[in-house]
Amino acid sequence: MQLQDNVAIVTGASSGIGKEIAHAFAREGAKVAIADINMQGANDVVSEIEAAGGAAMAVEMNVMDEAVVNAGVDAVAERFGRIDTMVSNAGIQIVHPIEDFPYEQFKKVVDIHLGGAFLLTKACVKHMYPRKSGSLIYMGSVHSHEASALKTAYVSAKHGILGLSRVMAKEGAKHGVRSNVICPGFVKTPLVEKQIPEQAESLGISEQEVVEKIMLGETVDTEFTTVQDIADVAVFLAAFKTNALTGQSIVASHGWYMG
Ligand SMILES: NC(=O)c1ccc[n+]([C@@H]2O[C@H](COP(=O)([O-])OP(=O)(O)OC[C@H]3O[C@@H](n4cnc5c(N)ncnc54)[C@H](O)[C@@H]3O)[C@@H](O)[C@H]2O)c1
């Protein structure tokens, strides 16, 4: 087991990519905190992990609320003794052409992805620095490197996450904390299922064309990346032992982005 006795907190772990990362961490021996606004989903994931013999706890956490993030992270450290791995993964998607994009919605996307990542990092390093050890993992996207129409908010936030992670690689180094970004291509989760009809309507094309041309058109094999693919990368980063691998972004996207 690659993560025996590791303590991990994963935000947005009630669904999709975060949920699979939580399961993969638990299978590798980690104790996992499932932090999400969706408590029904979080409790279900905890039950599944416990039923499989693992250790997990649910934490109600809106990543936009600093006091809530601090209290949630402290509760995990209290229950499991420390924080070794942070996965900042909670996210939403809102798509509009800029001329129709309400500023409130732009701010919400940036606040959840980038503001949430900042707050979670700030809360977690308090527990990591004194122990001279920790792994910060951010869920970026191919959209941390590439742009797509309709996604001013999401692409801005995901590019910002690269900057945040790189600063943390520099600030964290002397404390034994490394920092990396995972950049998935399209993964069929609720976040993406919702976009298919929305983009079809905004772009005036069929749903099939959205999938084949917009989402997978630049991949080498017209295939979706899977939640398991991303969980494998997260386990690799969490288990990596030295600062040799810090300040990086790992793109898993069927060759959509080659950087
Ligand atoms: N699905 C993809 O194709 C894809 C590709 C690249 C990157 N990503 C990124 O992966 C991450 C997870 O996305 P997913 O596809 O699994 O989506 P998802 O919708 O399946 O899961 C997102 C989770 O985040 C939670 N969440 C939303 N707002 C929150 C908040 N304010 N505080 C705490 N939790 C909140 C939701 O309740 C949900 O459980 C996101 O950061 C997303 O941008 C997804």
From TrEMBL:
Transmembrane segments: none
PROSITE patterns for this protein: ADH_SHORT (PS00061)
GO MF terms held by the record: 3-hydroxybutyrate dehydrogenase activity
Biological processes annotated in GO: monocarboxylic acid metabolic process
InterPro entries linked to this entry: 3-OHbutyrate_DH, NAD(P)-bd_dom_sf, Sc_DH/Rdtase_CS, SDR, SDR_fam
The family this protein is said to belong to: Belongs to the short-chain dehydrogenases/reductases (SDR) family.
UniProt name for this protein: 3-hydroxybutyrate dehydrogenase
Gene source species: Fulvimarina manganoxydans
